[in-house]
Design brief:
- By secondary structure, this protein is an alpha/beta fold.
- It has one domain: Ribosomal Protein L13p, Chain: A (Alpha-Beta Complex).
- It has five helices and six strands, in the order βαβαββαααββ.
- The strands form two sheets. Strands 5-2-1-6 form a four-stranded parallel β-sheet, covered by helices on one side.
- Helix 1 packs across helix 4 and helix 3 packs across helix 4 (about 100-110).
- About 25% of the residues are buried.
Length: about 150
């Protein structure tokens, strides 16, 4: 076999062809939406995927206030944070978080599915979430994507 006839391509930030993708979150289950968005942000579906480089696309999620949760998660799912002071643990249910800030629910779900390092922080900057149907990225001409079409 002639080993000089093929090369393994390792993509980097300059050679990655990044696109803008629009996802409508209306009536989508939160976890399934977040895993697909993380896959697109990471670029795992692309042929030139490189684990150590940002080769994914920019993702715009609209209608974050119309996501679904299955079962009784609206009342039972808890978001825990800590103020940093003794006894400063604060608990918020999913229903309370949706009423206060629906964008934070989607962002937190997607961020939890990205790598926990500098690359994950860089990939998270490529995510834009909006509560309503309007977004401010019309100039980038994002293509609306069906999540079932991504493999």
């Amino acid at each position: 076999m002639n080993t000089l006839s093929y090369k393994t391509v390792s993509a980097n930030k300059e050679t990655a062809n990044k696109e803008w993708v629009l996802i409508d979150a209306e009536n989508k289950v939160l976890g399934r939406l977040a895993s697909e968005a993380a896959k697109i942000l990471r670029g795992k579906y692309k042929t030139n995927f490189t684990p150590h480089a940002d080769t994914g696309d920019y993702v715009i999620i609209i209608n974050a206030d119309k996501i679904r949760l299955t079962g009784n998660k609206w009342n039972q799912k808890e978001y825990i944070r800590h103020t940093g002071y003794p006894g400063g643990q604060r608990v918020t249910t999913a229903k309370q978080m949706m009423a206060k800030n629906p964008i934070a629910m989607v962002e937190r779900a997607v961020k939890g599915m990205l790598p926990k390092n500098k690359l994950g922080a860089q990939l998270f900057r490529n995510l834009h979430v909006y509560a309503g149907p309007e977004h401010k990225h019309e100039a980038q001409k994002p293509k609306e994507i069906n999540l079932k079409s991504i493999k």
